[in-house]
Design goal:
By secondary structure, the protein is an all-alpha fold. The chain has helices at 2-20, 30-43, 55-93, 105-108, 128-141, 148-153, 170-180, 191-208, 226-234, 237-247, 251-282, 287-297, 306-319, 331-334, 344-369, 390-410, 416-445, 456-473, 478-483.
Length: 504
């Protein structure tokens, strides 16, 4: 056992030395701080006992454990931004004023009914501070709004002083609601598989972030094959989706599970080929080395592989089953798809896993194509390099999530046969073309001696990509539009704006 621990510690030292030789400096040396603290703790505990030879091993174990916990805390803390952004952006796009503000029910309840002080029902007295916050908000902000309709329906909207904050913590209120819901298992369901499936989904989803770094010194694992491990773990969750649909013993859930399995099979292969193109052009399976390669070469991969960026975005939308590729759920025909028979915290866990997978997709896009935590023109502007790297990564990921929300608001749901045809007939051949392009660029265009790309290469590729995008986007037929007739119009000439009262 001692030999295995020593080998593990030695290999970790070697790996970090190799990565650290080329790694960008970061003002937030989180991993270094944790390691220093664990070294001090281990030396003053284990190091002073008869088991002193395990001092270094225990320090490394505690470091890895704490970094996993800090990664989980960082991901879950910043995940609130995604949920808040989706509510706000969709409310703005759909011109729904009340939907853009939330959390009002936290203290006034639904329809003005508080159902008693529900926070007092939380275990171990955890609801006491919530009650204090509720009373403070009620006294300070009140519950009236300038829009009569919003006040009348008692929308879940804290319309307080700051325009930015309302609705940010609605997700915490929803999580508390799921915790208090009763867990019910269908009588004829496969109980064991029914219970295991949600935890299989959430466990593999959380495990993905063990291989996704947030900065050069803020990560849980930095294996040489981190991208390969990530793709393997990322592909396990669909099995949990199928098990959840099958074990519920419901026709709707079974159809949702079958659709999910068929859809994810069609899109998993293009995803792996697209990721392989990133590995080929970067020359490494290590996530941090892929990011550092973009910084050292001076060009983000999006300017070299614009087709790969589009393919990765489309495939990830289908992988996380978001509109327009959400046929496994399709509430219009399958009630709630494979979710139908679940409720309570298990439903909440699967709901959280969906957004965590979406979050992982956004961060991966930033890592693979937008230079990760590297800032644009970092070498030209002095003060930029002194900022924490995570401040550049998270806005990139949130920007990609904005595109996810935009697609949800703009596109309709696609039929199952259209989803499968699009995956097999279009995305798979295009992903192979993208892989060939990445191979050619790496072998015959990249200057391996100087470690840089010829300046004309990204300019030419980006220009060609933009021209093709514009040409392919112009698909309107003027004659068809002129001949088109509608029985009624869905457009309004007077669009509602925040704070506006309609005279009618």
């Amino acid at each position: 056992m001692q030999i295995y621990l020593q080998l593990w510690v030695h290999s970790t030292h070697v790996l970090e030395k190799q990565i650290g030789d080329t790694m960008t400096e970061d003002i937030l040396d989180i991993r270094g701080w944790v390691r220093s603290g664990m070294d001090f703790l281990s030396e003053n505990t284990i190091g002073m006992s008869r088991h002193w030879e395990y001092t270094d091993s225990v320090a490394w174990f505690l470091t890895e454990f704490l970094m996993c916990a800090l990664m989980f805390a960082g991901i879950m803390g910043t995940l609130l931004v995604l949920l808040w952004m989706e509510r706000k952006v969709l409310g703005r796009m759909m011109d729904r004023r009340g939907a853009r503000t939330s959390l009002r029910s936290l203290w006034i309840g639904e329809n003005g009914v508080t159902a008693g002080e529900w926070w007092n029902q939380l275990p171990f007295g955890t609801g006491v501070p919530i009650g204090m916050v509720n009373r403070a908000l009620n006294d300070f902000a009140g519950n009236d709004h300038e829009l009569e309709s919003v006040s009348r329906v008692q929308n879940r909207g804290y319309h307080g002083v700051w325009w930015l904050l309302p609705g940010f913590f609605q997700n915490l209120a929803d999580g508390m609601k799921f915790l208090t819901k009763e867990h019910m298992v269908p009588e004829k369901a496969d109980h064991y598989v029914y219970e295991v499936a949600p935890f299989l989904i959430i466990a593999t989803t959380v495990m993905c972030f063990a291989f996704i770094p947030l900065s050069p010194n803020y990560y849980a694992n930095n294996s040489e094959m981190s991208i390969l491990f990530l793709m393997a773990v990322f592909s396990v969750a669909p099995l949990g989706v199928f098990f959840a649909g099958w074990s519920s013993n419901n026709k709707y859930t079974l159809l949702g599970g079958i659709r999910s399995a068929a859809q994810l099979t069609a899109y998993e292969i293009p995803l792996l080929i697209t990721v392989l193109s990133v590995v080929v052009i970067s020359g490494s399976f290590n996530m941090i080395e892929v990011i550092e390669f973009q910084a050292d070469s001076g060009v983000w991969n999006i300017f070299l592989l614009p087709l790969g960026g589009i393919l990765f975005l489309v495939v990830m939308v289908a992988e996380v089953e978001r509109i327009p590729f959400d046929m496994p759920e399709a509430e219009a025909e399958l009630v709630e798809g494979w979710w139908t028979e679940y409720g309570g915290m298990r439903w909440g866990l699967m709901f959280a896993s969906e957004y965590l997978r979406t979050y992982a997709a956004c961060i991966l896009f930033a890592h693979f194509f937008l230079g990760g935590w590297e800032a644009p023109f970092e070498d030209s502007i002095p003060f930029i390099e002194n900022l924490p790297h995570i401040m550049w990564l998270l806005p990139k990921a949130w920007l990609i999530f904005f595109i996810f929300v935009w697609l949800r608001a703009a596109l309709h749901r696609v039929r199952t046969d259209q989803i499968l045809e699009f995956g097999w007939r279009w995305l798979l051949p295009l992903s192979l073309v993208n892989l060939v392009m990445a191979t050619i660029l790496r072998l015959w265009v990249y200057d391996g001696i100087n470690g840089e790309w010829p300046i004309l290469v990204p300019i030419l590729i980006t220009s060609i990509g933009l021209v093709l995008f514009v040409l392919l986007s112009i698909d309107e037929d003027p004659e068809a539009l002129a001949a088109q007739t509608r029985p009624f119009s869905v457009q309004t000439t007077d669009v509602a704006s925040p704070g506006q009262r309609r005279s009618d």
